[in-house]
Amino acid sequence: MADRDVTSIDLKDVELRDGSPEEQEEQQHRQQEEEEGDAEKVLMNTPGDANGAAAKLDDGASPAARFTGLTKEELLKISTQPFWIRTRLALLVLFWLGWLAMLAGAVAIIVQAPRCKPEPPRDWWQLTAVYDVSTAAFADNNGAGKGDVRGVQSRLDYLKQLNVRAMVMQLIPEDSATTRQEVNFTNVDVRYGRLDELQKLMTEARRKDIKIILDMFPAKWFSNGTSGTTKMREEMKKALKFWMEQGIAGFRIGVEGLGEKEEVNDLFEEWHNVTSTYSTEDKERRVLIADARQDSDLAEYLVENGNADLPVVYDLRKLSANSTETDVHNLVKSLIMKAANKSIGLAIGGRNGYLATKNPGLNRALGVLLLTLPGTPFIYYGDEIGLRDFEGAEIPMPWNDSSGIVNVKSQETHKHNSTLLLYRNLAKLKWSESAAKFGDFNFTLIEGGVFAFQLVWDQSPRLIILFNLGSTQQTLDLVKEHKLPATASVVGSSTLHRLGDVDLSKLQLEPMEALVLKYNYVA
C-alpha cells in the first residue's frame, strides 16, 4: 500500500516535467486557477451559520470569497412560509394601531384644550392712543416761527416712534373769527398751509398707518348767535362731507356753547348720520368725538346718552399728590363703569395746561394711568416729554436743546430713563397686547397706600399696574397673597430706572411710583 503511494505519479506532474520551462509555468498557473474555482464552488455549496457566514475550507485555506445572499427565487419561496406571513400581518396591524392611537391622542388634546376666547370687535380708535397736536406750535417747516401742515408732515416719524396711530390737528383755527362769514370751513387756513399740502400730509400719514382727525369748534365759529339755526347745521354737514372726502378719519368737536344737553345730543345725532354714510363696510369707519373739557356735567351726559362715538372725559385731572388709594379706586371704578357699555376717551393735559404743570411730581404716574386704563388716551403734545406751561402761552414743541428747557433731543439722548420712553412703551400696549386691547379689568389690592389692578385676557400675557400713593416705600409679596408667578417683566415705571425682571415675592414700590408689569399666563 505504501509502495503504491510512493510510486503513484500524478499525470499532471508528468506533463509538467515533460514540457519546457515556459510550458510548465503556464500549466502551473492554469492549475492554480482551477483549484481556486473548485474551492469557491465548495464554499457556495457549504451551509453557512445562522448569520449567513461562509464555512471554512477543510484544508484551512481562506480564499477571497463572499456570501452573495439568497436568490430571488429563494426569497419568494421563503416569503410564502406561514411564519413570515404571520409576521408581516402582525407588523402591519401594529403600525395601523399605533397610527390610530396617535390620531386619537391628538384629537383628545384638541378637544380637551381650553378654547381661546374670540376677540370682540374693536373700532380702530379703541386700539390706539391719540396724539393731540397744536398745528401752530408743533413744528415749523419754513422758519416763519409758526407751525404748519408741512411741519407736521416732517414729524410723522416721531409720532410713529411714539406708537400712536392717530392724531388730532387744527386746520380751521379756533379763534380766527367771530362771525360765520369770516370762516372758510372747506379749506386749510392760510396760516397753516394749503389744501394740496394737507393732501400730501394725509398720503404720507396713511403710509405710516397714522390717521388724521380734524379739530372743530362750531360754537366759536358761529358766535354771532346762529349756532342752533338751520343754516349753521347745513354748513356743518357740508364741512363734514368735504373733509371726509379729503380723507379725514374723523372729527373732534368742542361742545361748549352749542346749547343745552338735549340740543347738543340732537346735533351729534345729525352729524353722526353724516359720518355713518362714509363708514360703510367697504370704507373705514369715521369717528365722531365729543369734547366737553370745561363742562363735566355735559361730558357725563354725553357718555350716558350721547350719539358721539367717543365722548372725552377729564376725570383724571381730579387726582393730585394728596389723593389716597381710596380716591384713586373710586375714580377708576367710576371710569370703568362709564366704559362698560360705551367707548370713552381719557385726557388730562390740553390747551388749558400741561400735565406736568397741573401735577408736578405726579405727572408720570398719572401718565401711566392714562395709558393703561380702559379707554382711548389723548396725549397732548409735549406731555410725553414732561413739558410745562410758560406764562400761559402756547409753547412751540422743543425739538432740540436751543430753548434751554426739557426737549425731545435730550430725552432721546437718555432714552433708557426718559419720560418719552415711558410713553412710547405704554402707548404700544394699546395695539400690541391682547390684555390691553380686550382685557377684563380686575382690582387686585388696596392696602398700605397701594392701588393696583390687572388687565386679563384669556391665555394671553397679563398686565398688572401698581400705584403707590404713600410717602414711604412699600414692599409687597404678590406671590403669596395674590398667587402671581415668581417674576414679571417691567413694561414701564414712573421712576424711569427699572429694567428687566422683578421678584414679585418682594416687590418694592417707591413713593408716588406707578409701575406696569407683564407676566405670562399659567394654567
Q: What's the level 1 CATH class of the largest domain?
A: Alpha Beta
Distance between the termini: 99 Å
Biggest sheet strand line-up: 1-2-3-4-5-6-7-8
- Under CATH, the homologous superfamily of the largest domain reads Glycosidases
Regions with little confidence, pLDDT below 50 for 5+ residues: 1-18, 39-61, 176-180
CATH architecture descriptor text of the largest domain? Alpha-Beta Barrel
At CATH level 3, the topology of the largest domain is TIM Barrel
When the domains are counted, the total is 2
InterPro entries: GH (IPR017853), GH13_cat_dom (IPR006047), Glyco_hydro_b (IPR013780), SLC3A2 (IPR042280), SLC3A2_N (IPR031984)
Protein name: CD98 solute carrier family 3 member 2
Region (Disordered): 1-58
Keywords: Membrane, Transmembrane, Transmembrane helix
